[in-house]
Write a structure and sequence with these properties.
By secondary structure, the chain is of the alpha+beta class. It has 4 helices and 8 strands, in the order E-H-E-H-H-E-E-E-E-E-E-H.
Length: 171
């Protein structure tokens, strides 16, 4: 395993309002909120549907919740995160504690899930960050804004999640 040599500054949920840079994207999916929540809050299926994700693992007592440590592997980058927000079925958020690439001095991500009248789900992804020049590491097209990159990634993730769930439902 790569050495997690970079420590990020610890922040709490107030960083969502005080961070020097706040990115947000909103996407929708026809999937019901319970299915979207299960996929996001779980660990096992992320590589099946989330772009560039190789693995997600929770550490410590289960089920996961506030205080749980999560490790995520995205290509050559590994993150150690602490769950700070866990409101079953509606929102969860984590702070990055360590990584092998210093994408930010401090970073907190929040994902919210809202029911749509047609039975689908609105997903709101907020990233509060004090970014370094390495934040754009994941974007293949460096000319696209980071916020547009996030939206494209979330749209792709939700589309691939719908495909994954449809294929699992096939007899």
């Amino acid at each position: 395993m790569a050495d997690l040599t970079y420590d990020f500054r610890p922040v709490d949920s107030s960083f969502l309002e005080t961070a020097p840079t706040i990115y947000q994207c909103i996407c929708t999916t026809p999937l019901p909120r319970a299915d979207v929540w299960k996929a996001f809050s779980g660990a096992e299926t992320w590589p099946d549907w989330f772009p560039q994700c190789d693995r997600i693992a929770y550490e410590g007592k289960m089920p996961p919740g506030v205080g749980t440590v999560r490790r995520s592997w995205f290509g050559d980058v590994i993150f150690e995160e602490t769950m700070l927000i866990w409101e079953e079925g509606s929102r969860w958020g984590y702070r990055i504690d360590k990584a092998n690439l210093k994408i930010a001095e401090a970073q907190l991500e929040l994902t919210e899930f809202e029911d749509l009248p047609d039975g689908g789900t609105r997903v709101i992804w907020t990233m509060a960050s004090e970014p370094t020049d390495q934040l754009n590491h994941f974007a293949a097209d460096k000319t696209v804004s980071f916020e547009d990159f996030m939206k494209d990634m979330l749209d792709t993730a939700l589309s691939q999640l719908a495909q994954t769930l449809r294929s699992e439902a096939q007899p």
